[in-house]
Amino acid sequence: MAVFKPKFITFDCYGTLINFDMAGAASAIFADRVSAEEMLAFTTDFARYRMDEVLGAWKPYPDVVCQAIARTCKKWGVEYKDSDGAGIMEACATWGPHPDVPAGLAKVAEAFPLVLLSNTMNDLITHHVPRLGAPIHRVFTAEQAQSYKPRMRGFEYMLDELGCGPEDILHVSSSLRYDLMTCHDMGIKNKVWVNRGHDPANPAYGYTEIKDIGGLPGVVGL
């Protein structure tokens, strides 16, 4: 079969490209309030509440983080301080790409325009795009779309802005729940799952699996 040549390769940014270590940031901040033995369960709940917080009307991402960590603390009976959410957001701005990202992105950027669709704020993502090591054609944020993934609105906004349809893109993400399930429902047939251990596999959603971005050039015949 012929290799699919998309008009654009679109990416989730945080987790997929940027090593978005929310668990590490929360672990450092709450080390004095949550035991080491319980920290994994605590940060897992934090991730689940972040997902829940983005399912409604759009709000600034710092509000998503602060409300999610406050809800986690309430569940665990742990003291919450206003500085906790702010500390996590400060850590966000410092994170860089996974080691495999710059070379893999640079290779595919030689042949395809690269696009980001990210659950972030306009000012936050400016810290991260220059660290990716490849030219990025367009960047779309939840702030621009006024909607977070996994809702469809962000994908619709991106496709409208690019002037293309679901059949024209290859979407790449490490998250089935935030990205690839929605892509499936929207008829985006060409999908790549970067298996970074964020979600369990579910081949029913029709993706090509790679272990890191180094495998992406092979997917598009480079």
TrEMBL record:
Keywords: Hydrolase, Metal-binding. InterPro entries: 2-HAD, HAD-like_sf, HAD-SF_hydro_IA, HAD_sf, S-2-haloacid_dehalogenase. GO terms for molecular function: hydrolase activity, acting on acid halide bonds, in C-halide compounds; metal ion binding. Pfam families: Hydrolase. NCBIfam families: HAD-SF-IA-v2, HAD_type_II. This is Haloacid dehalogenase, type II. It comes from Rouxiella badensis. The lineage of its organism: Bacteria, Pseudomonadati, Pseudomonadota, Gammaproteobacteria, Enterobacterales.
